[in-house]
């Protein structure tokens, strides 16, 4: 008796499985691994140190800048301290040391009676180039300070030395003139910027005075520009004038019974 065909169908896969070999199967597993990126911290480079150089102008040492030359890096500051009597810091050129450079820095006249650094007026220049710059004092009363050697060099070179600059100044004509001789010019130039640390009273260039002709006739005290002698309480035998003296300096009682004239002040001739 035959087995019906339909009764074998459920077993067909089993028969086929035994008759036909099955291929091995491979399962691919995808795995994502996240690796954190290291944080980058920029390296901080310290700013170059800024140096402040101090230069003394005039004072007990006479008509001189101390030191008369120096080398400073870009960004450094040069602080000029003014001592007695009445000087300037004025920019010039190597070939014309005693003539103000057009558009150059000029502190203007800085009158002071200070003999020490404490409380003395100052003027600060910030160095903005390594190129040399040249400076002088433009005071001409009672004599020309520049032709006396009152000059200063910032970053002089081996070709243009301070000694040659000084020689040029001394050999200059004492009557060399500069534009705007009497007043400060605060024009910023590429070579330097500047800050005046203490504003002095406004002043003009000193009046000319003939010491030789006035000392004997008026009793002028040598080297001061002041005349001793007052109208002491309207005493007609006393001096009837007070020349080159400040208006605030008159003693009590002076001028009683007098007439005419005007209290005032004139710059002393230094």
Written overview of the protein:
- The structure is a single chain.
- The termini are far apart.
- By secondary structure, the chain is mostly beta strands.
- Mean pLDDT is 72; it is low at 179-193, 199-221 and 223-248.
- Among the domains are: 52-196, Immunoglobulin-like, CATH 2.60.40; 211-249, no CATH class.
- A hairpin with a 7-residue loop joins strand 1 and strand 2.
- The strands form four sheets. A five-stranded mixed beta sheet has the order 2-1-4-9-13, with no helix packed on it. Strands 3-11-10-6 form a four-stranded mixed beta sheet, with helices on one face.
- It has helices at residues 12-19, 162-170, 211-218, and strands spanning 52-57, 65-66, 69-70, 77-82, 86-87, 90-92, 105-106, 110-111, 122-127, 133-136, 151-154, 185-186, 192-196.
């Amino acid at each position: 008796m035959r087995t019906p065909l339909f009764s074998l169908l459920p077993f067909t896969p089993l028969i086929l499985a035994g008759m036909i070999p099955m291929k091995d199967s491979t399962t691919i597993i995808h795995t994502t691994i996240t690796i954190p990126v290291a944080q980058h911290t920029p390296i901080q480079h310290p700013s170059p140190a800024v140096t402040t150089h101090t230069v003394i102008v005039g004072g007990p040492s006479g008509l001189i800048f101390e030191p008369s030359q120096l080398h400073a890096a870009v960004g450094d500051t040069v602080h000029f301290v003014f001592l007695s009597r009445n000087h300037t810091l004025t920019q010039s050129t190597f070939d014309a040391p005693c003539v103000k450079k057009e558009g150059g820095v000029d502190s203007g006249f800085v009158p002071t009676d200070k003999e020490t650094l404490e409380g003395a007026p100052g003027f600060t220049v910030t160095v903005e180039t390594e190129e040399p710059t040249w400076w002088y004092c433009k005071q001409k009363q009672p004599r020309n300070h520049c032709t006396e050697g009152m000059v200063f060099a910032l970053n002089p070179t081996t070709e243009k030395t301070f000694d040659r600059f000084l020689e040029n100044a001394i050999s200059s004509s004492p009557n060399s003139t500069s534009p705007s001789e009497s007043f400060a010019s605060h024009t910023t130039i590429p070579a330097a910027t500047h800050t005046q640390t203490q504003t002095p009273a406004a002043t003009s260039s000193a009046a000319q005075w003939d010491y030789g002709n006035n000392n004997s006739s008026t009793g002028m005290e040598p080297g001061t520009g002041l005349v001793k002698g007052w109208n002491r309480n309207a005493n007609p035998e006393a001096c009837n004038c007070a020349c080159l003296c400040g208006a605030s300096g008159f003693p009590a009682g002076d001028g009683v019974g007098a007439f005419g004239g005007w209290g005032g002040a004139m710059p002393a001739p230094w």
